[in-house]
Amino acid sequence: MTRRSAELGHIDPQLADEFPGLALICLRLDARKGRTPAPIKRRMRELAGRISGATVVQARQDEVPWAYRVLWRRLGLDPDSDRTPVERLMVERLEHGGIPSHGMPNDAIVLATLETGIPVVVVDASKVGERPGLRPARSGESVDNDTPLRPGEVVYADDDRPLARLTGEVAPVCAVDGDTTEMLVCALAAASVSQMAIDEALWMVADLLEATGRLEESTREDNP
Amino acid sequence: MIEVIERPSATATPVRPSPSPDERAARRTLQAQIEHLERDLAELFCAAWPRQGFEWGVEAPRQSPRILNLGEIEQVRDALAHRVGQAQRELDARKRVEDAKRRLIDDMLKDPASHRWLRVSHEDIGEPGCKHWHVVPRFGFIGMFANWWRVKISSGCPLPKAAGHSPAAE
User: Most exposed of B21, B61, B104, B114 (fewest Cβ within 10 Å)?
Assistant: First the structure.
């Protein structure tokens, strides 16, 4: 698997002016969609065991989840109704009593988000146009080709179309599918979130996808 | 390996001066206040746990994430300030009641006979768990007539039962 260097996503000038420190950091890597290997499922179970009600309560005061609560608030959302990705996953963990596996790369996103608090989205790199980044949606654009976005809604997008909502909902046109061979992993950086946390999230997704690829390869070699 | 790349710092030069300079200063101030209030709200949320019945929601001006106008930012700041103030007052009021209950527990332990049948639970003093202090007569009716009272301390929550299982069904 080839990893390329991380690159900064394009931030709309108005957004950059309004939210200093807001950034999108993207990493391209060769990876395929697949089943989650047993060791990663075990890691998910262990992580689920570490997330209790007290952890979720305390998370609000932790630096990284708090930074995204502030960002949500500044974007006009109530993070108690429209939860930040990490809080949504934590609450889902409490409600379901575990972290269900949905295959790769979804499980890699869940692990990286829960471990680091950083929102991560993964899209098919071959379907992403020029200058992926963050910008307000234009009139008539939509993520799911069904419900149009409200003009001005901040979305992950390239020059041509929205790629995903801030909540993590990826547009079907650029979602990872069976034909994907190259992925674009994007980490959303809010002001005051350290570069180390962002790098950790990206590395974690890349490592997990790499490990999955290696395991699948060795399985194929064992059972030709 | 991922190359370490520099993110634009918070002091990076603004790209497009869309709002007037005066408005930008006001926006910055309001954003800083929102950050401060959000921290206060998070601290209160943690301090209030495990107490129930608090309202933490803050009305959002928009249904989708976007750049807010000055009025909307003010609205968020005001709503947050209102929520923080309200939660702080409610928490203070509860703590006063809880302190009184704690003193009552001390009094119950010192003089059970003067606090007959009183019961104070962990919930009453803002603690998690099912522990409670209950003033009951020693040896049942004998204690009642002889005025022998004691504080019975129940330390734990009832044991969980399997769903659909009841002793009567056996």
Answer: B21
